């Protein structure tokens, strides 16, 4: 269940508010954010990753940040991603890297962003670490897929995300046959011109693109906390002899931890998306917009101060 549209729109508006995002960097992890963001430093994040690994969970680390319009800041974000890769390698953690290209200068200059991505992918390749390019809002969709095509000519350790609420999702999945994809429902506010608005329709399309990617033999990450979707995927894989080595379930850090452990106990691979850093506000607001129960995080965090 998603929030009623006015409240969802409110949180999505806050997520893009530059003044609040800037202020949040000075606040520390407030309003319950510490429950869903694994710290502000790489040391804190890696400590949490290793604890999750001990429970049989794989991880993907995301140094939070997006919508960067300064080259120096984008270069600093690039170095931060490389630092994360080194930390994963040195700790031998079962962990990938997730990133947003707007953090690496996509809105400044595409060629500049591609250069930054090449540096990151090269280090990741050296360490045998997979890099996931997070899909952002619709205005960056085509650009993201075009850059992925360029990078895949040089690197086989990079993939992206497809959002089921977009009308184009089915075609994109078919065009990306053979490329490891994370499939999600979608978390940004988009118009009905480009995205489905009805939850039932989105759910149907989500299962549709999951089946397509599994059927064509591609590695598939199903990123969902929806137990109905998870049960349908388990049943479909069983009925169609799809090996468990071809897919994994992904969930967010701090959400449905019992379900994560249950799936591991059943023999499924589960990867936890572990965000960290000082630029946490936009990420946290989108989590509040997605599910009504998430507001409890903020209220508990607010009243505990």
TrEMBL record:
Keywords on record: FAD, Flavoprotein, Nucleotide-binding, Oxidoreductase, Proline metabolism
Keyword hit for Metal-binding: no
InterPro entries reported in the protein's UniProt record: FAD-linked_oxidoreductase-like (IPR029041), PRODH_bac_arc (IPR008219), Proline_DH_dom (IPR002872), Proline_oxidase (IPR015659)
Annotated GO biological process: L-proline catabolic process to L-glutamate
EC id: 1.5.5.2
MF annotations from Gene Ontology: nucleotide binding; proline dehydrogenase activity
Broad EC category: oxidoreductase
Cofactor needs: FAD
Residue span(s) of domain Proline dehydrogenase: 46-296
Residues given in the record as FAD binding sites: 135, 163, 185-187, 199, 224-225
Domain of life: Bacteria
Positions bound to substrate: 100, 286-287
Pfam families given in the database record: Pro_dh (PF01619)
Pathway: Amino-acid degradation; L-proline degradation into L-glutamate; L-glutamate from L-proline: step 1/2
Cofactor binding, note field: Binds 1 FAD per subunit.
Reactions catalysed according to its record: L-proline + a quinone = (S)-1-pyrroline-5-carboxylate + a quinol + H(+)
Protein name: proline dehydrogenase
Organism: Shouchella lonarensis
